[in-house]
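The records we work with from here on pair a chain with its fold. Taken together, the C-alpha coordinates spell out the fold as the letters spell out the chain. To see the layout at work, look at the sequence and C-alpha coordinates printed below.
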Amino acid sequence: MIIPAFDFLEGKVVRLYQGNYLNKTFYNINLYQYLKNLKKKGVKIIHLVDLNGAKKREDRQSRLFQNIISSTNMLIQIGGGIRTENDIDALFHLGCERVVIGSSAIKNKFAVRRWLKVYGPDKIVLALDINIVNNRKKISINGWAKETNHTLEDTIDFFSTESLTHVLCTDISKDGTLSGPNISLYQEIVQKFKHIKFQASGGVSNLSDIIALEESGVNSIIIGRSLLEKKFTIEEALKCCQNV
Protein backbone atom coordinates (compact mmCIF):
# COMPACT_ATOMS: atom_id res chain seq x y z
CA MET A 1 0.00 0.00 0.00
CA ILE A 2 1.25 3.47 -0.89
CA ILE A 3 0.78 6.15 1.78
CA PRO A 4 1.51 9.69 0.58
CA ALA A 5 2.99 11.82 3.37
CA PHE A 6 2.70 15.52 4.12
CA ASP A 7 4.65 17.33 6.81
CA PHE A 8 3.33 20.70 7.94
CA LEU A 9 5.19 23.65 9.42
CA GLU A 10 3.26 26.86 10.08
CA GLY A 11 0.43 25.58 7.91
CA LYS A 12 2.63 24.90 4.88
CA VAL A 13 3.72 21.63 3.29
CA VAL A 14 7.41 21.10 3.96
CA ARG A 15 10.07 18.41 3.84
CA LEU A 16 13.02 18.30 6.19
CA TYR A 17 16.37 16.80 5.26
CA GLN A 18 17.14 14.04 7.81
CA GLY A 19 14.73 15.71 10.25
CA ASN A 20 16.67 18.99 10.41
CA TYR A 21 14.36 21.99 10.90
CA LEU A 22 17.12 24.25 9.56
CA ASN A 23 17.32 22.31 6.30
CA LYS A 24 13.79 22.49 4.92
CA THR A 25 12.02 22.86 1.61
CA PHE A 26 8.52 24.31 1.33
CA TYR A 27 6.18 23.14 -1.44
CA ASN A 28 3.67 25.48 -3.00
CA ILE A 29 0.83 23.13 -3.82
CA ASN A 30 -2.95 23.39 -3.82
CA LEU A 31 -3.26 20.90 -0.99
CA TYR A 32 -6.98 20.22 -1.18
CA GLN A 33 -6.95 19.73 -4.95
CA TYR A 34 -3.88 17.53 -4.54
CA LEU A 35 -5.72 15.36 -2.01
CA LYS A 36 -8.76 15.10 -4.28
CA ASN A 37 -6.50 13.83 -7.04
CA LEU A 38 -4.91 11.25 -4.76
CA LYS A 39 -8.34 9.97 -3.78
CA LYS A 40 -9.45 9.84 -7.41
CA LYS A 41 -6.37 7.82 -8.35
CA GLY A 42 -7.04 5.20 -5.69
CA VAL A 43 -5.08 6.26 -2.59
CA LYS A 44 -6.71 4.87 0.58
CA ILE A 45 -4.74 6.53 3.39
CA ILE A 46 -2.47 9.53 3.91
CA HIS A 47 0.11 10.32 6.57
CA LEU A 48 0.26 13.79 8.15
CA VAL A 49 2.94 15.15 10.47
CA ASP A 50 2.56 18.22 12.69
CA LEU A 51 6.09 19.64 12.90
CA ASN A 52 4.95 22.59 14.98
CA GLY A 53 3.23 20.32 17.45
CA ALA A 54 6.27 18.07 17.58
CA LYS A 55 8.35 20.97 18.88
CA LYS A 56 5.73 22.57 21.11
CA ARG A 57 2.34 21.11 22.00
CA GLU A 58 0.76 24.57 22.28
CA ASP A 59 1.51 25.17 18.60
CA ARG A 60 -0.39 22.13 17.35
CA GLN A 61 -1.99 22.78 13.96
CA SER A 62 -5.40 21.38 14.92
CA ARG A 63 -7.46 23.71 12.73
CA LEU A 64 -5.46 22.73 9.67
CA PHE A 65 -5.94 19.03 10.34
CA GLN A 66 -9.63 19.53 10.99
CA ASN A 67 -9.97 21.21 7.60
CA ILE A 68 -8.02 18.43 5.86
CA ILE A 69 -10.03 15.64 7.48
CA SER A 70 -13.35 17.32 6.67
CA SER A 71 -12.30 17.74 3.04
CA THR A 72 -11.64 14.07 2.27
CA ASN A 73 -12.92 10.61 3.09
CA MET A 74 -9.49 9.04 2.79
CA LEU A 75 -8.23 7.49 6.01
CA ILE A 76 -5.75 9.72 7.81
CA GLN A 77 -3.02 8.96 10.32
CA ILE A 78 -1.40 11.85 12.16
CA GLY A 79 1.81 12.17 14.15
CA GLY A 80 3.87 14.89 15.75
CA GLY A 81 4.15 15.62 19.45
CA ILE A 82 1.44 13.27 20.72
CA ARG A 83 2.19 12.89 24.42
CA THR A 84 -1.07 12.39 26.33
CA GLU A 85 -4.43 10.70 26.08
CA ASN A 86 -5.95 14.15 25.63
CA ASP A 87 -3.80 14.59 22.53
CA ILE A 88 -5.03 11.26 21.18
CA ASP A 89 -8.67 11.96 22.01
CA ALA A 90 -8.48 15.36 20.31
CA LEU A 91 -7.22 13.81 17.06
CA PHE A 92 -9.80 11.05 17.09
CA HIS A 93 -12.46 13.70 17.73
CA LEU A 94 -11.34 15.43 14.52
CA GLY A 95 -11.89 12.16 12.64
CA CYS A 96 -8.35 10.84 12.48
CA GLU A 97 -8.16 7.09 11.79
CA ARG A 98 -4.83 6.38 13.54
CA VAL A 99 -2.43 8.33 15.71
CA VAL A 100 1.31 7.99 15.32
CA ILE A 101 3.32 7.85 18.54
CA GLY A 102 7.04 8.60 18.40
CA SER A 103 9.15 9.81 21.32
CA SER A 104 6.53 8.88 23.93
CA ALA A 105 7.02 5.22 23.04
CA ILE A 106 10.43 5.53 24.67
CA LYS A 107 9.96 8.28 27.24
CA ASN A 108 6.57 7.12 28.51
CA LYS A 109 6.46 3.51 27.38
CA PHE A 110 4.13 2.15 30.04
CA ALA A 111 1.50 4.77 29.24
CA VAL A 112 1.82 4.00 25.53
CA ARG A 113 1.42 0.30 26.19
CA ARG A 114 -1.76 1.16 28.09
CA TRP A 115 -2.97 3.25 25.12
CA LEU A 116 -2.60 0.21 22.88
CA LYS A 117 -4.94 -1.63 25.21
CA VAL A 118 -7.41 1.25 25.62
CA TYR A 119 -7.71 2.32 21.98
CA GLY A 120 -6.84 -0.98 20.30
CA PRO A 121 -3.75 -1.91 18.29
CA ASP A 122 -5.28 -0.84 14.97
CA LYS A 123 -5.60 2.76 16.19
CA ILE A 124 -1.97 3.26 17.26
CA VAL A 125 1.10 3.40 15.02
CA LEU A 126 4.51 3.40 16.68
CA ALA A 127 7.01 5.57 14.81
CA LEU A 128 10.41 4.08 15.56
CA ASP A 129 13.15 6.14 13.98
CA ILE A 130 16.57 4.58 14.00
CA ASN A 131 20.25 5.16 13.44
CA ILE A 132 22.16 1.98 12.74
CA VAL A 133 25.36 2.03 14.82
CA ASN A 134 27.63 -1.02 14.82
CA ASN A 135 24.71 -3.08 13.52
CA ARG A 136 22.49 -1.90 16.42
CA LYS A 137 19.23 -0.21 15.43
CA LYS A 138 19.23 2.56 18.02
CA ILE A 139 16.10 4.65 18.38
CA SER A 140 16.30 8.44 18.31
CA ILE A 141 13.69 10.73 19.86
CA ASN A 142 12.84 14.44 20.28
CA GLY A 143 12.78 15.13 16.57
CA TRP A 144 15.83 12.87 16.17
CA ALA A 145 17.89 15.22 18.34
CA LYS A 146 18.56 12.59 21.00
CA GLU A 147 19.83 9.08 20.39
CA THR A 148 18.80 6.49 22.98
CA ASN A 149 20.16 3.08 23.93
CA HIS A 150 16.81 1.50 23.13
CA THR A 151 16.87 -0.77 20.10
CA LEU A 152 14.18 -1.34 17.54
CA GLU A 153 13.92 -5.03 18.37
CA ASP A 154 13.62 -4.59 22.14
CA THR A 155 11.01 -1.88 21.73
CA ILE A 156 8.84 -3.97 19.42
CA ASP A 157 9.10 -6.89 21.84
CA PHE A 158 7.99 -4.68 24.75
CA PHE A 159 4.85 -3.42 23.01
CA SER A 160 3.99 -6.73 21.40
CA THR A 161 2.60 -7.83 24.77
CA GLU A 162 -0.37 -5.57 23.93
CA SER A 163 -0.76 -6.87 20.37
CA LEU A 164 1.25 -4.10 18.70
CA THR A 165 0.31 -4.16 15.01
CA HIS A 166 1.54 -1.04 13.19
CA VAL A 167 5.16 0.16 13.18
CA LEU A 168 6.43 3.01 11.04
CA CYS A 169 10.17 2.44 10.80
CA THR A 170 12.47 5.13 9.41
CA ASP A 171 16.18 4.86 8.79
CA ILE A 172 17.07 8.45 9.69
CA SER A 173 20.09 8.48 7.41
CA LYS A 174 17.74 8.03 4.45
CA ASP A 175 14.92 10.42 5.31
CA GLY A 176 14.33 13.23 2.84
CA THR A 177 17.46 12.37 0.88
CA LEU A 178 16.07 10.61 -2.22
CA SER A 179 19.08 8.28 -1.83
CA GLY A 180 17.12 5.02 -1.84
CA PRO A 181 15.59 3.12 1.10
CA ASN A 182 17.40 0.65 3.35
CA ILE A 183 15.99 -2.49 1.76
CA SER A 184 18.05 -4.92 3.85
CA LEU A 185 16.69 -3.34 7.05
CA TYR A 186 13.10 -4.01 6.05
CA GLN A 187 13.85 -7.51 4.79
CA GLU A 188 15.36 -8.31 8.17
CA ILE A 189 12.65 -6.90 10.41
CA VAL A 190 9.77 -8.23 8.32
CA GLN A 191 11.19 -11.73 8.73
CA LYS A 192 11.83 -11.28 12.44
CA PHE A 193 8.45 -9.75 13.35
CA LYS A 194 5.87 -11.47 11.20
CA HIS A 195 2.98 -10.12 13.33
CA ILE A 196 3.85 -6.49 12.57
CA LYS A 197 2.50 -4.47 9.64
CA PHE A 198 5.55 -2.35 8.85
CA GLN A 199 5.35 1.04 7.20
CA ALA A 200 8.63 1.82 5.45
CA SER A 201 9.74 5.42 5.34
CA GLY A 202 12.74 7.29 4.02
CA GLY A 203 14.76 7.51 0.83
CA VAL A 204 12.29 6.50 -1.90
CA SER A 205 13.43 8.19 -5.10
CA ASN A 206 12.17 6.06 -7.99
CA LEU A 207 9.83 3.27 -8.97
CA SER A 208 12.52 0.62 -8.49
CA ASP A 209 12.68 1.59 -4.82
CA ILE A 210 8.95 0.99 -4.49
CA ILE A 211 9.19 -2.42 -6.13
CA ALA A 212 12.10 -3.42 -3.87
CA LEU A 213 10.23 -2.33 -0.76
CA GLU A 214 7.09 -4.16 -1.84
CA GLU A 215 9.16 -7.30 -2.39
CA SER A 216 10.72 -6.92 1.08
CA GLY A 217 7.33 -7.68 2.60
CA VAL A 218 6.49 -4.35 4.24
CA ASN A 219 2.79 -3.61 4.52
CA SER A 220 2.97 0.02 3.42
CA ILE A 221 5.36 2.48 1.81
CA ILE A 222 5.30 6.10 2.93
CA ILE A 223 6.28 8.50 0.16
CA GLY A 224 6.79 12.22 0.63
CA ARG A 225 9.40 14.21 -1.22
CA SER A 226 9.57 12.08 -4.37
CA LEU A 227 5.85 12.59 -5.05
CA LEU A 228 5.96 16.29 -4.25
CA GLU A 229 8.91 16.73 -6.62
CA LYS A 230 7.25 14.61 -9.32
CA LYS A 231 9.95 11.95 -9.56
CA PHE A 232 7.06 9.72 -10.59
CA THR A 233 3.26 9.88 -10.54
CA ILE A 234 0.95 8.40 -7.97
CA GLU A 235 -0.53 6.20 -10.73
CA GLU A 236 2.92 4.75 -11.44
CA ALA A 237 3.58 4.17 -7.75
CA LEU A 238 0.28 2.38 -7.20
CA LYS A 239 0.83 0.26 -10.30
CA CYS A 240 4.19 -0.93 -8.94
CA CYS A 241 2.47 -2.38 -5.91
CA GLN A 242 -0.18 -4.09 -8.01
CA ASN A 243 2.41 -5.74 -10.24
CA VAL A 244 4.62 -7.22 -7.50
